[in-house]
Amino acid sequence: MSDLDADLDLDVDLDMSLEISDLDMELAEISLVPDLRKCAILLDIDGTILDLAPSPQQVWVPPGLRRTLARLVDLTGGAVALVSGRSLADIDLIFSPLQLAAIGGHGAELRAVADAEPITRAGPLSAALKRKLASVTEIGPGILAENKGYSLAIHYRLAPDKEDEVRTAVAAIFAQAPPGSVEILPGKLVVQIKPARINKADSVSELMSFLPFADRNPIFIGDDITDEPVFGIISKFGGLGFSVGRVFADTNGHFDKPDSVRTWLARIAAQGLDTQGLGTQGAGTAE
């Protein structure tokens, strides 16, 4: 069994031209090779294709990942999208010079084509609300505020013992907001407040109505509670959902860690090139 196979647990009833072999009860020794002419690849960022960092500003994009994503864009005819709580401006900065189709702000922004003007579904949080939320960092060192434009996140990855205090403080601020205006969005050692009635699932559904995503079978990979609604709707498009690090309901399997996802993406990019007769010379690795 290869290192990647050991990192990917698979439970799939496929209708997508994926090749599976040697399934057993727990782990699958697999060769998961989608037909890139027929599928779309939708990827969460933090904790999915990028390793989590002590602060959001410290994430690092391995050069090989940019090359892999660029190849997948070519092989899918552009049907690769990033699906994130980060704003599109932040996504573009992190992956620069590469620019991709993307959903930003947990669904507040949607860009179906890399260089297109984004569709905006919500406005930024008010400055006053952001200031109130940022005051939660006074609870103690290691608690960080991240201004995402459309939402504000309070990270306590460096102070996990303060979780109860952070969540209680954010809930108190949320209770003061106009009813129905915002929502609390819990996550992995983070809690956010975002505009109500926007989410990744609705935006993914909308994205799938635009070319080049329309009439393709999506593969969505995510790692956090914020991705769970997407897992619930991905099968409507004949697609597959995979989690990272832990198992979620409505998924077809899970990867062990972001490095496993990057390795798999590099593999299917290389095999896609080979299938099209372009060879894999210079295809590189996940890193």
Describe this structure in words.
The chain has 287 residues and is of the alpha/beta class. The protein has two domains: 33-121 and 198-275, HAD superfamily/HAD-like (Rossmann fold, 3-Layer(aba) Sandwich), CATH 3.40.50; 127-195, Alpha-Beta Plaits. The protein contains eight helices and 13 strands. It has a nine-stranded mixed beta sheet. A four-stranded antiparallel beta sheet has the order 7-8-10-9, covered by helices on one side. A hairpin with a 7-residue loop joins strand 5 and strand 6 (119-120). The radius of gyration is 19 Å and the shape is globular. It starts with a helix and ends in a 12-residue tail after the last helix.
Shape label: globular
Helical proportion?
25-40%
Please give the count of helices.
8
- Strand count, sense and closure of the main sheet? 9 strands, mixed
Order of helices and strands: HEEHEHEEEHEEHEEHEHEEH
In which order are the strands of the major sheet placed? 1-13-12-11-2-3-4-5-6
At the fourth level of CATH, the homologous superfamily of the largest domain is HAD superfamily/HAD-like
The CATH architecture of the largest domain can be named as 3-Layer(aba) Sandwich
Query: How many angstroms separate the termini?
Result: 21 Å
Number of folding domains?
2
Provide the gyration radius in Å.
Answer: 19 Å
Return residue spans where pLDDT drops below 50 for at least 5 consecutive residues.
1-31, 277-287
Tell me the number of strands.
13
Determine the CATH topology of the largest domain.
Answer: Rossmann fold
Query: Which structural class matches the secondary elements?
Result: alpha/beta
